Each structure stands twice: as C-alpha cells, then as structure tokens.
Amino acid sequence: MTKFDAKPLSTPNLAPMIGVLLAVFTVVATGSVGLDKALALDIPGCHLMAPGAPTPRTIQITFQRDGQAYVGASRAASAAAAVAVAVREARTHGLDGVVLRADPDVRYDVVATAAGRLDDAGIKVSLISEDLY
User: Fold this and answer.
1) Backbone angles phi, psi at 29, to 5 degrees
2) Of the four listed, 12, 62, 124, 132, which is most buried by Cβ atoms within 10 Å?
3) How many CB atoms are located within 10 Å of the residue 121 CB?
4) CATH number at residue 117
5) Counting runs of H as helices and runs of E as strands, what totals does the chain give?
6) What is the number of structural domains in the chain?
7) Is residue 81 situated within a structural domain?
8) Owning domain of residue 67
9) Do you know which InterPro entries this protein is assigned to (predicted)?
10) What is the model's pTM?
C-alpha cells in the first residue's frame, strides 16, 4: 500500500491553521469589547517646583536597624517619642511636613505606625526610599 492509496483522514489537521484561528479570534474579541472607543483617564501629573521656588521646610525622622530613632540629628527615646517630637516641631515652626527614612532592615510596622500617627496629627508625610545593594 502506497501513501496515495490511503484513505483521507477522518479529522482534519488544524495545526497549520493555528495562526489564522488566533488572528480571527483576536479580531472578533477586540470588536466585541468595543476597543474602537476612547477612554479618558485622569492621570495626576508631576508637580515640579519652579526654579528659584522656596524649598519645602521639613523635618526628618530616621529609623535605624538597631531600633534607634532620630529626629533630625537628635536621638529620640523611641519611635513614638520621635513622632511626638516631630509633630511638636512641625506645629511650632510651621514646617511643611515630616520625611520618614528607615533602614532596609527596619520592620514595616514601625514605619506604618509612625506614618499613621503623623497623618492622624494632620502632618504631611513623605517617605524616602533607598535601594542599597
């Protein structure tokens, strides 16, 4: 029996048509979800300071990996004490906010608790993120 004597296959081989089927599926899928309509997205822009604009006055709280907390260059008794000092200083001197900086090994809950307390006090919080490798 030669290859020309064989009977036709009972099911066609669709492997060569996979690309065509994917193209048809893509056209049908994009047409059915309405991608022909524009969607307006409101994306907040970057607010850069104008040259010569005054730099915001802030105070920095630093949390170190050994558990020490600093307000500026002064060591605080604890993280809660550092937050209390920063709130008092920000209100007394009319500062624009508090910057939090933590070593990579500091537990997240220390930073989150400090940020929450500052936010509860109505103080703007900024975070410094440093990737040191």
Assistant:
1) -65, -45
2) 62
3) 16
4) 3.30.420.270
5) 3, 5
6) 1
7) yes
8) 58-128
9) ExbD (IPR003400)
10) 0.57
